[in-house]
Structure formats: C-alpha cells, structure tokens
Amino acid sequence: MPSGGAHRTRSGTPSASPSTDRPWHHERLAFGTGTNSALLLVSRYREELRRTPDHRLALRRALRHAGPAVPASNVTVVPALPTLPVASIPSTRILGVAAATDPVCALLFALLVLPAALAACGRGLFWPFVPHVGDVDRAGIGGWHRLARGVARGPCSR
What we know:
Mean pLDDT: 80
Shape: globular
Structural class: mainly alpha
Protein name: Membrane transport protein MMPL domain-containing protein
Keywords: Cell membrane, Membrane, Transmembrane, Transmembrane helix
Number of helices: 6
InterPro entries: MMPL_dom, Mycobact_MmpL
Order of helices and strands: EEHHHHHH
Number of strands: 2
Radius of gyration: 21 Å
Family: Belongs to the resistance-nodulation-cell division (RND) (TC 2.A.6) family. MmpL subfamily.
Helix content: 40-55%
Subcellular location: Cell membrane
C-alpha cells in the first residue's frame, strides 16, 4: 500500500477501493435513485392501505398516483449525467454516459420488480406497524412534524 493509506490503480492513480479501478459513484447513484423511486411508491402504497381493504387494489391505486412521479424523478437525473465528462474532478468525469444506466435500471426495478414484491407481501410488509383501513395518518403529528412546521415558519418563508 502506498504511503498515506491511499490505494493506487493499475495506472498509478489514487483509488477509493483497493480491488477495482471503477469508482464507487455508480453504486451510490444506483442506490440513491432506487431508494428515491421505492420511497415514492411504498409511501403511497402505505397511504392507500389505510383507505382500501384489498391490498392489491391499494397497490393499483398507489401505482396510478405515484407511478408518474417515479419516472419524472429519474428523468431529471438521466439527461444531466452525460454532461459529466466536462467536469473538472477526474472521478466525476469518469461517470458520464455510463452512469446514466443506473437511474434507468432503478426505474425499471421500481416499476416492475417492486410492485410484484409489494403484491406478494401485502400488508405484512409493514410489520409490526401494519396499516389498517381507518387508521389515523400520523404524518401530521409528532416531533418531525413540529420541526417541519418550525422550518416552514422560518425567516425564508416570509
């Protein structure tokens, strides 16, 4: 290992990983866009489970309402990635066009695999806090809601 604890690639440039020349940004980008897409759908599904007794009908409604937001959030990322080769940071420059496939894969997963998994798991997915029809939406109460209200009332909102 070179001095200072930095790993070097075969070409002699510093690397974040001792075992590969590939930057870790791909995994971060795929994980971030995938998490965003999944949260959009899963949170809407949870809301629908509080309104609908049939979990498959709740999933269809969640897909109808949150489904358009999933590709919309990915469409904002994908066109920007091919511009990265002009970046001044080498590790960012490497990403470029190849990284545009990460959000596309996350989108396909969120629209094809995740709904199938949600349909198979049903309400049990949310154990031990399983949402039932008529349950109170707790989003408007608690410490996080009070914090959000305080931020919204802050000096920037006037």
